[in-house]
Amino acid sequence: MVAYRAGRSMGLTVLLAAVASAAAQGQDPAPAKLTPQAVLKSHNLERFGTTWTLLSTEKNVLKDLADARARYQQVYEGMMRQQEFEMGAQGRKSDIQDLREQSNILSQQIAAINQQLNALVAPPGDNNFVNQQRNQLSQENNLLVAQHDQMVNMLNTLQEQNKDQGQDQKLQLNAEVAQSREKYMQAVLDLRKSADELTAKYDELAKNPEITKALEALSASTKSTQRLGPSAKVRDAIKLLERAEGSVQSETIELHRENGVDHVYASLGKVPTKMVLDTGAGLTTISAKLAGRIGLKPKTSDPTVRLTTADGTVVEARQLVIPSVRVGKFTVQNVECAVMPAEKGDVDPLLGQTFFKHFKVEYSAGARKLSLKKLDTTGDGAEIKSVADADAKPSAKAPTKGRRAVRPPRAAVKSKRSTQNRPSASGGDAQAPPDGGADPN
Q1: 226-235, 287-296, 362-371: which has the minimum mean pLDDT?
Q2: Among 211, 379, 400, 416, which residue has the least CB neighbours within 10 Å?
Q3: CA 103, 106, 112 angle in degrees (round to 5)?
Q4: Cα separation of 166 and 160, whole Å?
Q5: From CA 160, how far away is CA 158, in angstroms rounded?
Q6: Sheet holding 360-364, edge to edge
Q7: What is the three-class DSSP state of 256?
Q8: Which SS3 state, helix, strand or coil, does residue 117 take?
Q9: Does residue 409 have a cis peptide bond before it, meaning omega lies within 30 degrees of 0?
Q10: Cβ-count burial of 101 within 10 angstroms (0-12 exposed, 13-18 middle, 19+ buried)?
Q11: Any long-range contacts for 53-57 (C-beta under 8 Å, 24+ apart)?
């Protein structure tokens, strides 16, 4: 009886153990702990050396950087073409001046021969000798006149070509550079946006304790410090972005309303004056009196520009260059202008595209504010043209090595706009950009 009970108890124990074993086999196993690498990859981080980065987001930043680099290169090359054109124009002007001087010399020689012919009087009984002298002088005179006529024809042709072809090419170059500057500044804005988005994501990840622990554990196991991005390439890109942003200078200027027209205070050379604001006008226009105050004296040899006033009157003004024009903190050197005839009196000066073409202009008539943004292509911002991917190949149109960065040359402006008591130039430069203003390097 005792043996029976002991056997029964042992069997029950075995049965309970089997049931417990079966129950244990039916349960889910305990979840395995993720490795530090798996934790980091679960947050879309990828490893490059000892740095864990958001690869896809960083690619967007580097793409925007490459775009900004390409845009700057277009600005730089455009300004180089402007400089080359300006140098060519100066060469053509020099050729024209040489022809004028040679033409004057021939005119003087012709005049001297005519005086000799008039003074040549035959002595009594010796007409043959005088006739020989007259014939010789006449031949020399005819030869000089033919040379003079040929030179005058060459001079007229060169002047006409320089006026027509040169002006069209200048307009095209100015328009291309203005558009390139606009695109470059927009590319810098796009780069800033993508860089800020990337920085915000890294800041958020840095506050995640799971990521912090994973980096610490991985650093301990590899005996090398593991860090969160951005990568060195993106850090360099952000530094260059800051320099590029420093090259885009801006200022907001208060306008003054008089007789329904907005005015802006400016300094022409050392002479302060109040000028009518007209970003759509071609040439900056000043009176003969104001021109005299800043040291400009129109001459008959200065180019003539035809201006049309609001009442339809056509006025012939002289085209000169103001040494400097300052508005707010910005100064533009060598601004082409039209000087009105003295008989037109002290007309209001007008600030036009020969000044505004150097800026991106935002004009708010309601708020009476003028925003000027200028690309300084001679400062640190120029370094962005050498950035992007390290393997980037130079542009096929890149300027020759060794050329220095240049400021855009001056140019005249075309405008079809006429306003009350104000002229509009009929010959000139690039039109204002579509966002209501004028236009980097």
Answers
A1: 362-371
A2: 400
A3: 145
A4: 9
A5: 5
A6: 248-254, 369-375, 360-364
A7: strand
A8: helix
A9: no
A10: exposed
A11: 53/229, 53/230, 53/231, 53/234, 54/198, 54/201, 54/202, 54/229, 57/197, 57/198, 57/201
Q: How far apart are CA 430 and CA 167, in angstroms?
A: 11
The residue to which tokens 């504010």 are assigned? 369
pLDDT tens digits for range 243-252: 888 777 788 8
Report the C-alpha gap between 57 and 64 in whole angstroms: 11
Distances (CA, A) of 220 to 34, 38, 43, 49, 228: 16, 16, 20, 15, 15
- Domains annotated on the chain, with CATH: 53-203 (1.10.287), 249-389+403-425 (2.40.70.10)
Sign of CA dihedral 342, 346, 348, 354: positive
Judge whether 139 and 391 are in contact, CB under 8 Å: no
Task: Quickly count helices (H) and strands (E) in the chain.
Answer: 8, 15
| pLDDT (tens digit per residue) in 324-357 | 999 988 889 999 999 999 988 888 899 998 998 8
Residue 185 has pLDDT above 50, yes or no: yes
What proportion of the chain, given as a percentage, has pLDDT over 90?
Answer: 30
Percent composition of the chain: helix, strand, coil (DSSP 3-state, to 5): 50, 20, 30
* Closest CA relative to residue 112, chosen from 129, 137, 130, 132: 137
Q: Identify the residue with better confidence: 294 or 419.
A: 294
Q: What are phi and psi of 200, to 5 degrees?
A: -65, -40
| pTM summary value | 0.52
**Pairing, β 360-364 against β 369-375:** antiparallel
